[in-house]
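RETRY 2/3 - previous attempt timed out on the joint model. Re-submitting the same 504-residue input unchanged.
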Amino acid sequence: MEYVLEVTSLEKQYENFSVKNISFKVPKGYIMGFIGPNGAGKTTTIKAILGMLNISSGNIKLFGKDSQGMNGQFNDKIGIVMDTPYFAEDWNASDIETAVSPFYQHWNSETYASLLEKFSIDRKKKLRDLSRGMKVKLMVSVALSHHATFLVLDEPTSGLDPVAREELCDLLSEFVTDENNSVLFSTHITSDLEKIADYITFILNGEIVYTGLKDDLMENYSLAKGSLYEINEEQRKLLIGAREYSTGFEAMVKTSDIRKLPNELLTEPITLDEIIVFMNKEGKTDE
Amino acid sequence: MNKTLSFMKLDYVTLRPYVTMKNLFIMIAVALFFTVQSNTSSISILMAYGFMFTGYPFAVGEKCNMDELYISLSISRNAVVGGRYLFTILMELCLGVFACLVSVLLSLLLHRPIEARETLIVVVTLFFVLSFLQTLQLPVFFKMGYAKGKMMTYMPLMVLAFLIIVISKHVSKVLSRFIEWLSKNPVTAITSGILIWLLTVLISYQIALKLYKKRDF
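RETRY 2/3 succeeded.
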């Protein structure tokens, strides 16, 4: 399998936080969701991948080549959408084109114009006057106007209404219909990823806890509900991030462990959101 | 080099929303006000704008996370620092030319004699002094950004003002002899002035680059 991004043993240390031993790969032609609660290290990892941070150690390969000292080799191939736009607030869509197009070999003004039209973005309107959703769409328009084959999106859907999120997800799905295109999509709104992601990398407290196929992750875990009186101490240890109520409990369990639990418990498929919540709760309990 | 030049253009596009007719009229109005005193005063005030504008690209860039944009465009940190230095110097040069033109225009309007030699000396001297001050400012902005570095960058101005007030009293004789020597050896004076200026810019650039490379965005 060919990979557009290979991260190996990445580390970045701050005074109060660090990401440790981050390793994962984004296969060519697929969408990888990068999930984790706020403050887990998603943005730090993405910024490290893009060279916005000086990493403490590790190795990052983009399109099979070491990303260190990439100096202009890959910007045409990578489209970036960060959670906040990095354009001057007084720029309008035309200013943005004037500013960025000289840096792309394959900038396509027609594509940019058609995307602006598709998203109903007024060329003359300043960035500061656009809504959050419009700003994201404008960044997506730039990212798609220079024939990028790898999109890196950091929390693009946070703060967007469901309609705008749906539109963005449709756009990404359409993007990967070309088998040369790939996406790394960081978000904590995982319902978006359940629809479109093929792979998931899950980061928690600065460490990767899962990287692989989304379906495997969702099949590996289940949601168990029932009364605490129905399970013994040994079985309690199988529960991950259990929430206890007066009427019973709710917890995540490994699907392979279900047979070790009483048949009286209710087990059902789990969502990505629930996986994050239970993993996070378990992490905090361990601390 | 291409990326450095493109970065200069990017800096210009960043500042373009502020290059408005309204701001131009304000600049000329202020220059006109100072022309009452002398033509050189209007030149000084116009060129001082360049010094004040040095922080603008940093201020806008910091407010809008534009360092991330530079990285997304694969502009190397060398090109960012080099481009910003060239842009700053070019801006000061353009303001020098603009100040000359305004000075000549005002002289014509006010029926004053056009003192070309005096104007040129003032513009060249101011260019060297202000760009020297900018070489002290720029590494601070590259290290700390605009918001944190703003106050610190006014330190060189205050130090210079202090030195002028204090030292000029005590070394006035030495200073007048030095100026006399300069006027007698104009070629040596200009050549050494340019060399010192170049050296200062290069040292400042190297420090700024080293500091900027360490920054995370």
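The longest strand of chain A covers residues 3-13. Closing ticket.
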